[in-house]
Amino acid sequence: MTRVTVYTLAIALTLAGSANRNSVFRIATLQAEEANYLVGCGSADITGPAAGFPMEGFVRKDRLTKGIHLRQRARAFIIAERDDTPSAGKRVVFVCAELSMIHSDVYREAMARLKQRFDGLYSEENVIISATHTHSGTGGYHRYGADGPLGAGFFFEQLDGIVTGIESAVVEAHNQLRPGRILIAQGDVADAGANRSAVAYRNNPKEERSLYPHDTDTEMTLLKFVGGDSAEQALGTVNWFAVHPTSMTYNNFLISGDSKGYASIKFERLMGVTHRKPNEFVAAFAQSNCGDVTGNLNLNNTGPGKDDFESTGIIGQRQLDVALQLYEDASEELSGPIDVRHTNVDFSELAVANEFTGSGPQLTAAACYGYSFAAGSTEDGGGHPLFHEGMKNRNAAIDLLSYQMFPDSQPDKHIRQLQFPKAILFAPGAAKSASGLAQVMPLSICRIGQLILVVGPAEYTTMSGRRIRRSVQEAFGDAAKYVVIAGYSNGYGGYVSTREEYEMQQYEGGHTLFGPWTLAGYQQEFVRLAHAMVEGAPVDPGPALDGGPIPVKRRTIGFGTDQAPEDAKFGDLFVAPKSKYTRGQRVEVAFWTGHPRNSFHTGGNYLSVERRLADNWETAYTDADWETRCQWQPSLNSDQPCQINIIWDIPADEEPGEYRIVHHGSYRLEAEAESQSFDKATASFRVE
Ligand SMILES: [Zn+2]
Predict the structure, then answer these.
(1) Distance of CA 296 from the midpoint of ligand 1 (Å)
(2) How far is the CA of 591 from the centre of ligand 1 (A)?
(3) Ligand 1 centroid, distance to 241 Cα (angstroms)
């Protein structure tokens, strides 16, 4: 089947409902014997406060949410051996969360709750929580740097909302566990990423570069989950592909999962998913080694579309097209043992052997940010104007400023030597008081039959990922047919560039926290885990995680109370729809409402676009969809009466008919009182 046919059929499927989805997405011909594994999928909302709340990804304190374009979700997959007994190591959980990163606060809190709920069945030993690295999600959910000059503040309710969503997704996947099969397929995604640090990449040895056709990894690896011994149920899919979700740039103030969020919601809607029923299909677009890969193909914070929205749609669609094709084509079944080796590694001064450095025994170094960290990635919009990529020489004025801002985080001579040639901006790894920055990193190798997931907490560049994959592949030999980097997982330890890239001190080198031998250290430790797995040997769990929780100010999300509108009620229309639209047009309406920070909750929706059926209304779109946007006005506070502006871009192929827009709002008139919820609809209008 061609890609276009699959896509057209999939659209037809959406319109026809989900009942016959398997007649469209043909289940690959499978042998009649028993399914290999128990499989389960689940998902839950983790969207942060929709207005006036810090966003995370670009380290800009002035970036506060104004509304929602795409909701943030956590998607979970559990794979267990068929003859599983409740012992860790025989099953694995992969959670793909639409977050900027998995800070140790999220990881610790999620592990504590999962361990308690499942009596130890799920723990650090078999759970992977991975971030898509969207740069348009909300922040404020971790303590690291929260009260510092670059921090967003710490809001426990926001951390709680995220961890509750992750836990709910795992619970749903666990409750759904059933005999099933996993099919795997790989394919190339063309023109969905460009290397944003070509000058660093080109400093890698020529012979090594000549092994690869591109300066980014174009490969997508996809798993397809089907349930039942006869594999009749389409349960879910997850894929790994490396591209920075920065298509929505720092000029965007709407919550968004970026290109990966686009692809996930579109895939799920094609499968008839509503997010309002249990056990629906789950489609996750997970992150890999995208450290130096941008979706801004013009390499100047723009492209390939005319604006952020169009660029996100294009980069998302390119991933979606390949995922749909791989999902359709996948026919190779994963089979064989499930196994995990997990350890914590202290990178603050790790001894790395000659086998991995090629330059004799070396040491990693206490975590330091370089000047070029502050420069940001020029191709993704840049950072502070005082800085530029490639800075290697110290500057007395900058060092003085750094000393004033970070008096406790200054490197000594030893650290400077180990970090050479990085010009050090500040050194949280050298702080005498707890900085909240983790230097002990959780690492795992996870095997599901012929697939090996290399699970690390960092932003690996293209070539770093390749070196790690090569090292791990060698350790496994033929046992590993597929080796995939699952970056941004279980913690956050900055970037990992190769030693040669590090020398150039581009943004990624300046953000490679543990010095020039960081990558070699990761290779060494992943190979140690791989060898242990091959030999069936246990591994030392390593030191306890560090980095938190540290004392910070606890902030509350709510501002207090909402202001009632004058001469109107909450839920009244401020801007009404027209009576008639043609397909392809934009519908814009506005309601009086409360501020979302005053009644914060995850889940639910602020808006629905409803289509009239014979004598009732059916939800066609919500605020989770690409076709809608909602925005609060004013967004920053609730001192004045507040409106929600709702946009629905009517697709060119929308079904003609009668529609209306519903706002699901809430408000709070007294600080201590329960918030009041309401659902108010516009008059209906025709779409022709
Ligand atoms: Zn990044």
Answers:
(1) 13
(2) 37
(3) 14
Mean pLDDT score of the chain: 93
pLDDT of the residue at 71: 98
Per DSSP, the three-state class of 26 is coil
Q: How far, in Å, from the CA of 483 to the mean position of ligand 1?
A: 22
Q: Cα of 32 to ligand 1 centre, how many Å?
A: 45
404 has a pLDDT exceeding 70: yes
Please report, for residues 27, 163, 206, 272, the alpha-carbon distance to residue 214 in angstroms, rounded to integers and kept in the order given: 33, 38, 13, 36
Contact 256, 223 (CB under 8 A): no
Could you tell me the distance, in angstroms and rounded to a whole number, from the CA of residue 291 to the centre of ligand 1? 6
Measured CA to CA, the distance from residue 234 to residue 236 in angstroms comes to: 6
Class of residue 683 by CB neighbours under 10 A (exposed 0-12, middle 13-18, buried 19+): exposed
In DSSP terms, which residues pair with 95 in a beta bridge?
Answer: 76, 129
Cα–Cα distance, 255 to 265 (Å, whole number): 14
Task: Determine the average pLDDT of the residues in 36-64.
Answer: 95
Position 308, amino acid: D
CATH superfamily entry for domain 573-687: Neutral/alkaline non-lysosomal ceramidase, C-terminal domain (2.60.40.2300)
Q: Could you tell me the distance, in angstroms and rounded to a whole number, from the CA of residue 455 to the centre of ligand 1?
A: 16
Task: Please say whether the beta carbons of 244 and 133 come within 8 A.
Answer: yes
Residue 542 CA, ligand 1 centroid: distance in Å: 27
Domain ranges of the chain: 35-344+439-535, 573-687
For residue 150, how far is its CA from the centre of ligand 1 (angstroms)?
16
Contact predicate 104/429, CB 8 Å:
no
pTM of the predicted model as reported, rounded to 2 decimal places? 0.94
Residue in 182, 169, 170, 222 with CA at minimum distance from that of residue 81: 182
Q: How far is the CA of 380 from the centre of ligand 1 (A)?
A: 10
Q: How far apart are CA 131 and CA 240, in angstroms?
A: 11
pLDDT in tens, 263-295: 999 999 999 999 999 999 999 999 999 999 999
> How far does the centroid of ligand 1 lie from the alpha carbon of residue 244, in Å?
6
Using an 8 Å Cβ cutoff, are 424 and 416 in contact? Answer: yes
Distance 560 CA to ligand 1 centre (A): 35
| pLDDT mean over 284-312 | 98
Q: How far is the CA of 377 from the centre of ligand 1 (A)?
A: 9
